[in-house]
Protein backbone atom coordinates (compact mmCIF):
# COMPACT_ATOMS: atom_id res chain seq x y z
CA UNK A 1 0.00 0.00 0.00
CA UNK A 2 1.45 3.32 -1.08
CA UNK A 3 0.22 6.92 -1.19
CA UNK A 4 1.33 9.33 -3.91
CA UNK A 5 0.44 13.00 -3.95
CA UNK A 6 0.22 13.95 -7.63
CA UNK A 7 -0.78 17.55 -6.94
CA UNK A 8 0.13 19.24 -3.66
CA UNK A 9 -1.03 22.80 -4.34
CA UNK A 10 -3.99 24.75 -3.00
CA UNK A 11 -6.46 26.85 -4.97
CA UNK A 12 -4.23 28.16 -7.71
CA UNK A 13 -1.51 26.04 -9.31
CA UNK A 14 2.07 27.29 -9.26
CA UNK A 15 5.13 26.30 -11.29
CA UNK A 16 6.12 23.96 -8.49
CA UNK A 17 2.73 22.56 -7.47
CA UNK A 18 -0.31 21.35 -9.37
CA UNK A 19 -3.74 21.31 -7.72
CA UNK A 20 -4.89 18.41 -5.58
CA UNK A 21 -4.89 14.72 -6.56
CA UNK A 22 -3.81 11.76 -4.43
CA UNK A 23 -3.43 8.12 -5.43
CA UNK A 24 -3.80 5.20 -3.02
CA UNK A 25 -1.83 2.39 -4.64
CA UNK A 26 -3.44 -0.97 -3.82
CA UNK A 27 -1.79 -2.92 -6.63
CA UNK A 28 -0.21 -5.55 -4.32
CA UNK A 29 -3.51 -5.94 -2.45
CA UNK A 30 -6.26 -5.78 -5.10
CA UNK A 31 -4.48 -4.89 -8.37
CA UNK A 32 -6.14 -1.44 -8.47
CA UNK A 33 -5.68 2.19 -7.53
CA UNK A 34 -8.06 4.49 -5.67
CA UNK A 35 -7.89 8.15 -6.68
CA UNK A 36 -8.80 10.90 -4.25
CA UNK A 37 -9.60 14.22 -5.95
CA UNK A 38 -8.86 15.20 -9.51
CA UNK A 39 -7.10 18.55 -9.79
CA UNK A 40 -6.72 20.16 -13.19
CA UNK A 41 -3.33 18.65 -14.15
CA UNK A 42 -4.29 15.10 -13.13
CA UNK A 43 -3.88 13.53 -16.57
CA UNK A 44 -0.51 15.19 -17.17
CA UNK A 45 0.78 14.18 -13.75
CA UNK A 46 -0.34 10.56 -14.32
CA UNK A 47 1.68 10.49 -17.53
CA UNK A 48 4.80 11.14 -15.47
CA UNK A 49 4.18 8.04 -13.32
CA UNK A 50 3.69 4.31 -13.99
CA UNK A 51 0.05 4.49 -12.87
CA UNK A 52 -2.30 3.10 -15.52
CA UNK A 53 -5.59 5.06 -15.70
CA UNK A 54 -7.48 1.85 -16.54
CA UNK A 55 -6.44 0.45 -13.16
CA UNK A 56 -8.01 3.39 -11.33
CA UNK A 57 -11.42 1.89 -10.63
CA UNK A 58 -12.66 3.97 -7.69
CA UNK A 59 -12.50 7.76 -7.49
CA UNK A 60 -13.35 9.70 -4.33
CA UNK A 61 -14.03 13.44 -4.58
CA UNK A 62 -13.77 15.39 -1.32
CA UNK A 63 -15.61 18.51 -2.52
CA UNK A 64 -16.66 20.41 -5.58
CA UNK A 65 -14.17 23.29 -5.57
CA UNK A 66 -12.38 23.58 -8.90
CA UNK A 67 -8.92 22.80 -7.55
CA UNK A 68 -10.23 19.32 -6.65
CA UNK A 69 -12.38 18.46 -9.68
CA UNK A 70 -11.36 20.34 -12.84
CA UNK A 71 -9.24 17.40 -13.96
CA UNK A 72 -12.08 14.92 -13.61
CA UNK A 73 -13.95 15.16 -16.96
CA UNK A 74 -10.66 15.00 -18.89
CA UNK A 75 -9.42 12.03 -16.90
CA UNK A 76 -12.68 10.08 -17.28
CA UNK A 77 -12.85 10.84 -20.97
CA UNK A 78 -9.20 9.91 -21.69
CA UNK A 79 -9.52 6.70 -19.70
CA UNK A 80 -11.89 5.51 -22.40
CA UNK A 81 -8.97 5.64 -24.89
CA UNK A 82 -6.35 4.20 -22.55
CA UNK A 83 -7.50 0.60 -22.34
CA UNK A 84 -10.38 1.46 -20.06
CA UNK A 85 -12.88 -0.39 -22.30
CA UNK A 86 -15.48 -2.17 -20.25
CA UNK A 87 -13.54 -1.61 -17.01
CA UNK A 88 -16.18 -0.08 -14.72
CA UNK A 89 -15.37 2.96 -12.64
CA UNK A 90 -17.13 3.98 -9.43
CA UNK A 91 -17.12 7.63 -8.49
CA UNK A 92 -18.05 8.87 -5.01
CA UNK A 93 -18.58 12.59 -4.45
CA UNK A 94 -20.80 15.27 -2.92
CA UNK A 95 -24.29 16.00 -4.15
CA UNK A 96 -24.07 17.87 -7.45
CA UNK A 97 -21.20 15.90 -8.95
CA UNK A 98 -23.54 13.77 -11.07
CA UNK A 99 -25.35 16.77 -12.54
CA UNK A 100 -22.07 18.61 -13.24
CA UNK A 101 -20.46 15.64 -14.99
CA UNK A 102 -23.52 14.65 -17.00
CA UNK A 103 -23.98 18.23 -18.21
CA UNK A 104 -20.28 18.54 -19.09
CA UNK A 105 -20.34 15.26 -21.04
CA UNK A 106 -23.60 16.20 -22.75
CA UNK A 107 -22.42 19.66 -23.89
CA UNK A 108 -19.01 18.42 -25.00
CA UNK A 109 -20.46 15.36 -26.79
CA UNK A 110 -18.36 12.99 -24.66
CA UNK A 111 -19.28 9.33 -24.40
CA UNK A 112 -17.43 6.72 -22.38
CA UNK A 113 -16.84 3.11 -23.43
CA UNK A 114 -16.99 1.79 -19.88
CA UNK A 115 -19.72 1.86 -17.22
CA UNK A 116 -19.44 4.87 -14.88
CA UNK A 117 -21.35 4.57 -11.61
CA UNK A 118 -21.75 7.85 -9.75
CA UNK A 119 -22.55 7.61 -6.03
CA UNK A 120 -23.45 10.80 -4.20
CA UNK A 121 -22.19 10.72 -0.61
CA UNK A 122 -23.38 12.17 2.69
CA UNK A 123 -22.18 12.60 6.25
CA UNK A 124 -21.87 9.36 8.25
CA UNK A 125 -22.01 7.00 5.26
CA UNK A 126 -20.06 3.77 5.44
CA UNK A 127 -19.07 2.41 2.02
CA UNK A 128 -17.83 -1.09 1.26
CA UNK A 129 -15.32 -0.84 -1.57
CA UNK A 130 -13.38 -3.91 -2.75
CA UNK A 131 -13.08 -5.28 0.78
CA UNK A 132 -12.20 -1.91 2.31
CA UNK A 133 -14.51 0.03 4.60
CA UNK A 134 -14.66 3.71 3.75
CA UNK A 135 -16.19 6.01 6.34
CA UNK A 136 -17.40 9.40 5.18
CA UNK A 137 -17.49 12.43 7.47
CA UNK A 138 -18.58 16.00 6.67
CA UNK A 139 -15.90 18.60 7.43
CA UNK A 140 -16.14 22.40 7.77
CA UNK A 141 -15.55 24.40 4.59
CA UNK A 142 -17.63 26.95 2.60
CA UNK A 143 -19.02 24.05 0.52
CA UNK A 144 -19.69 20.47 1.68
CA UNK A 145 -16.27 18.88 2.02
CA UNK A 146 -15.62 15.33 3.21
CA UNK A 147 -13.11 13.17 5.00
CA UNK A 148 -12.63 9.59 3.76
CA UNK A 149 -11.29 7.00 6.21
CA UNK A 150 -10.13 3.84 4.43
CA UNK A 151 -9.88 0.74 6.60
CA UNK A 152 -8.37 -2.55 5.52
CA UNK A 153 -9.80 -5.67 7.18
CA UNK A 154 -7.60 -7.36 9.80
CA UNK A 155 -5.71 -10.39 8.49
CA UNK A 156 -6.05 -13.70 10.30
CA UNK A 157 -2.80 -15.13 11.63
CA UNK A 158 -1.07 -17.85 9.62
CA UNK A 159 -0.85 -21.49 10.72
CA UNK A 160 1.90 -22.19 13.20
CA UNK A 161 3.66 -25.12 11.49
CA UNK A 162 5.99 -25.74 14.45
CA UNK A 163 3.03 -26.18 16.79
CA UNK A 164 1.32 -28.56 14.37
CA UNK A 165 4.51 -30.62 14.03
CA UNK A 166 4.65 -30.84 17.82
CA UNK A 167 1.41 -32.81 17.83
CA UNK A 168 2.64 -34.91 14.91
CA UNK A 169 1.01 -33.28 11.85
CA UNK A 170 3.51 -32.89 9.02
CA UNK A 171 3.16 -30.16 6.33
CA UNK A 172 0.91 -31.07 3.38
CA UNK A 173 -2.54 -30.42 1.95
CA UNK A 174 -3.93 -31.15 5.42
CA UNK A 175 -2.70 -27.67 6.50
CA UNK A 176 -5.14 -25.98 4.09
CA UNK A 177 -7.96 -28.17 5.41
CA UNK A 178 -7.12 -27.23 9.00
CA UNK A 179 -6.89 -23.52 8.13
CA UNK A 180 -10.36 -23.63 6.56
CA UNK A 181 -12.10 -25.27 9.50
CA UNK A 182 -12.76 -24.20 13.08
CA UNK A 183 -11.71 -27.54 14.61
CA UNK A 184 -9.82 -30.63 13.45
CA UNK A 185 -9.29 -34.17 14.72
CA UNK A 186 -5.89 -35.83 14.98
CA UNK A 187 -5.39 -39.26 16.59
CA UNK A 188 -8.88 -39.10 18.08
CA UNK A 189 -8.25 -35.74 19.76
CA UNK A 190 -10.25 -32.66 18.67
CA UNK A 191 -8.25 -29.41 18.45
CA UNK A 192 -9.37 -25.80 17.93
CA UNK A 193 -7.72 -24.27 14.83
CA UNK A 194 -7.49 -20.88 16.58
CA UNK A 195 -4.97 -22.39 19.03
CA UNK A 196 -2.65 -23.05 16.07
CA UNK A 197 -2.78 -19.60 14.44
CA UNK A 198 -0.20 -16.81 14.76
CA UNK A 199 -1.19 -13.28 15.79
CA UNK A 200 -3.75 -11.30 13.77
CA UNK A 201 -2.27 -8.54 11.57
CA UNK A 202 -4.25 -5.34 12.02
CA UNK A 203 -5.53 -3.80 8.79
CA UNK A 204 -4.20 -0.39 7.85
CA UNK A 205 -6.19 2.79 8.37
CA UNK A 206 -5.72 5.81 6.12
CA UNK A 207 -7.62 9.09 6.58
CA UNK A 208 -7.71 11.61 3.72
CA UNK A 209 -9.25 15.04 4.31
CA UNK A 210 -10.84 17.48 1.95
CA UNK A 211 -10.34 21.17 2.66
CA UNK A 212 -11.46 22.03 6.17
CA UNK A 213 -10.97 24.14 9.22
CA UNK A 214 -9.66 22.13 12.16
CA UNK A 215 -12.29 19.81 13.62
CA UNK A 216 -12.09 18.86 17.28
CA UNK A 217 -15.27 17.00 18.25
CA UNK A 218 -15.03 13.58 19.90
CA UNK A 219 -16.72 11.72 17.06
CA UNK A 220 -14.10 13.07 14.64
CA UNK A 221 -11.23 12.24 16.97
CA UNK A 222 -12.50 8.68 17.32
CA UNK A 223 -12.75 8.35 13.56
CA UNK A 224 -9.13 9.23 12.85
CA UNK A 225 -7.35 8.05 16.01
CA UNK A 226 -4.86 5.19 15.58
CA UNK A 227 -4.56 5.88 11.84
CA UNK A 228 -1.43 4.69 10.07
CA UNK A 229 -1.47 7.76 7.84
CA UNK A 230 -3.55 10.93 7.90
CA UNK A 231 -3.47 13.36 5.00
CA UNK A 232 -4.61 16.83 6.02
CA UNK A 233 -4.75 20.16 4.27
CA UNK A 234 -2.13 22.81 5.10
CA UNK A 235 -3.39 25.99 3.48
CA UNK A 236 -1.84 28.00 6.34
CA UNK A 237 1.68 27.15 7.51
CA UNK A 238 2.55 29.99 9.83
CA UNK A 239 0.47 30.33 13.03
CA UNK A 240 -2.35 32.20 11.26
CA UNK A 241 -5.06 30.25 13.08
CA UNK A 242 -7.77 32.92 13.04
CA UNK A 243 -7.36 33.62 9.36
CA UNK A 244 -7.38 29.90 8.59
CA UNK A 245 -10.57 29.44 10.59
CA UNK A 246 -12.25 32.40 8.87
CA UNK A 247 -11.60 30.96 5.42
CA UNK A 248 -12.58 27.38 6.32
CA UNK A 249 -8.98 26.12 6.22
CA UNK A 250 -6.36 24.93 8.73
CA UNK A 251 -2.98 25.94 10.06
CA UNK A 252 -0.52 23.08 10.47
CA UNK A 253 0.65 23.70 14.04
CA UNK A 254 -2.88 23.48 15.46
CA UNK A 255 -3.46 20.30 13.44
CA UNK A 256 -0.22 18.76 14.73
CA UNK A 257 -1.15 19.67 18.30
CA UNK A 258 -4.45 17.78 18.00
CA UNK A 259 -2.95 14.83 16.11
CA UNK A 260 -0.22 14.38 18.76
CA UNK A 261 -3.01 13.25 21.13
CA UNK A 262 -4.56 10.73 18.70
CA UNK A 263 -1.84 8.10 18.23
CA UNK A 264 -1.42 8.88 14.55
CA UNK A 265 1.58 7.18 13.03
CA UNK A 266 2.31 9.49 10.11
CA UNK A 267 0.86 12.84 9.06
CA UNK A 268 1.18 14.17 5.52
CA UNK A 269 0.28 17.79 4.87
CA UNK A 270 -0.73 18.86 1.39
CA UNK A 271 -2.81 21.64 -0.27
CA UNK A 272 0.05 24.14 0.02
CA UNK A 273 -0.74 27.72 -0.91
CA UNK A 274 1.26 29.52 -3.60
CA UNK A 275 1.59 32.43 -1.13
CA UNK A 276 4.58 30.60 0.33
CA UNK A 277 7.81 30.33 -1.58
CA UNK A 278 9.67 27.02 -1.54
CA UNK A 279 12.49 28.38 0.67
CA UNK A 280 9.96 29.26 3.36
CA UNK A 281 8.37 25.79 3.06
CA UNK A 282 11.81 24.18 3.36
CA UNK A 283 12.37 26.15 6.58
CA UNK A 284 9.07 24.90 8.04
CA UNK A 285 9.93 21.31 7.02
CA UNK A 286 13.11 21.45 9.07
CA UNK A 287 11.10 22.16 12.22
CA UNK A 288 8.73 19.19 11.87
CA UNK A 289 8.88 15.93 13.82
CA UNK A 290 10.14 12.94 11.82
CA UNK A 291 6.65 11.44 11.35
CA UNK A 292 5.22 14.61 9.79
CA UNK A 293 5.73 15.47 6.12
CA UNK A 294 4.86 18.36 3.86
CA UNK A 295 4.19 16.88 0.43
CA UNK A 296 5.47 18.15 -2.87
CA UNK A 297 4.17 16.91 -6.23
CA UNK A 298 4.95 13.17 -6.62
CA UNK A 299 5.67 12.78 -2.90
CA UNK A 300 5.26 9.06 -2.21
CA UNK A 301 4.84 7.23 1.06
CA UNK A 302 4.93 3.46 1.54
CA UNK A 303 2.49 2.43 4.28
CA UNK A 304 4.23 -0.29 6.27
ZN1 LIG B 1 -8.81 23.29 -2.29
ZN1 LIG C 1 -12.01 23.99 -1.13
TrEMBL record:
Residues that coordinate or bind Zn(2+) 2: 67-68, 211, 271
Broad class of enzyme this protein falls into: hydrolase
Catalytic function, reaction form: Endonucleolytic cleavage of RNA, removing extra 3' nucleotides from tRNA precursor, generating 3' termini of tRNAs. A 3'-hydroxy group is left at the tRNA terminus and a 5'-phosphoryl group is left at the trailer molecule
Chain positions recorded as Zn(2+) 1 binding sites: 63, 65, 141, 211
Cofactor(s), names only, from the UniProt record: Zn(2+)
GO MF assignments: 3'-tRNA processing endoribonuclease activity; zinc ion binding
Known EC number: 3.1.26.11
Keyword Transferase: no
Active-site feature positions: 67
Keywords: Endonuclease, Hydrolase, Metal-binding, Nuclease, tRNA processing, Zinc
Classification via Pfam families: Anti-Pycsar_Apyc1
SUPFAM superfamilies named in the record: Metallo-hydrolase/oxidoreductase
Free-text cofactor note: Binds 2 Zn(2+) ions.
Free-text function comment from the UniProt entry: Zinc phosphodiesterase, which displays some tRNA 3'-processing endonuclease activity. Probably involved in tRNA maturation, by removing a 3'-trailer from precursor tRNA.
Family indicated by similarity: Belongs to the RNase Z family.
Quaternary data: Homodimer.
HAMAP family hit by this protein: RNase_Z_BN
Protein name: Ribonuclease Z
Naturally occurring in which organism (per UniProt): Phocicoccus schoeneichii
Taxonomic lineage of the native organism: Bacteria, Bacillati, Bacillota, Bacilli, Bacillales
Amino acid sequence: MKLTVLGSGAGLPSKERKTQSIVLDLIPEINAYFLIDAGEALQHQLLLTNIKPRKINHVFITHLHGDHIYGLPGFLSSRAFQGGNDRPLHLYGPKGIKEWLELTFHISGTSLNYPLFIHEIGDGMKLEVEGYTVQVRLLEHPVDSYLFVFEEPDKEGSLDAAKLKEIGIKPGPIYAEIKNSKTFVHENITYRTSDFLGPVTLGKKIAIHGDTRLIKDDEYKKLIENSDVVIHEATFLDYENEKAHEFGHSEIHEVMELFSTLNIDTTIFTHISNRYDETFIKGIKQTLPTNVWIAEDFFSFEVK
